[in-house]
Amino acid sequence: MHNKVVYHAMKAFSSFGLPVLRFNFRGVGLSEGKYDNGSGEQDDVRAALDWLDAEFHRPILFAGFSFGAQVGLRACCGDARLAGLIALGLPVRVAGRDTNYGFLSQCFAPKLFISGDHDAFGPREELTEVFQRAPDPKRLIWIAGADHFFQGTEESPGAKLNLMQRETCAWLQEAFALAETSDSKL
């Protein structure tokens, strides 16, 4: 909830005056419960969606980073309340395990995938295959010289979080005709 990627994504949404909810999954930080291999964490996402829906009664845009992107996509795809989905640093290979995203073929909401071109958990070939299986509308953006956390590489030092944030804002503007608020420009 407090890592730099999630924070910069929140700032992108806030720049349009959109309400933002960040939360920890069960067992993280001071959250109750314990890790449930992604299954119970999908329930955490659904509970957050229920709260947002009840509180704001507006279409919902989901953004998740890494494990949060994986779990969030699974929980959100097919949910009619979702207007769009953003997966930041979507993991496709972790600790020797390949992740199956077959469910994406039934995910028709607009989708944005942003990944660093040096992301060890999202190798270009594997992530491109996942992306290609997802129906339109969709976009895949590679941030040059960025690792999984959108930090720089030895060849391209310096954080790339601002690039991830800029691409997120550009997609939100294009896909949803949003305009940044004058008091919250990035």
Please explain how this structure is put together.
With 186 residues, the protein is α/β, with parallel strands linked by helices. The protein has one domain (4-176): Alpha/Beta hydrolase fold, catalytic domain (Rossmann fold). Helices cover 35% and strands 16% of the residues. The protein has helices spanning 4-14, 39-56, 67-76, 124-133, 161-176, and strands spanning 60-65, 82-88, 93-94, 97-98, 111-116, 138-143. It has a four-stranded parallel beta sheet, with helices on both faces. Strands 3-4 form a two-stranded antiparallel ribbon. Helix 1 runs parallel beside helix 5 (161-176) and helix 2 crosses helix 3. The chain starts with a helix and ends in a 10-residue tail after the last helix.
Short description:
With 186 residues, the chain is α/β, with parallel strands linked by helices. The chain contains 5 helices and 6 strands; from the N terminus they run H-H-E-H-E-E-E-E-H-E-H.
Keywords:
186 residues; alpha/beta; Rossmann fold; two-stranded antiparallel sheet; 6 strands; 35% helix
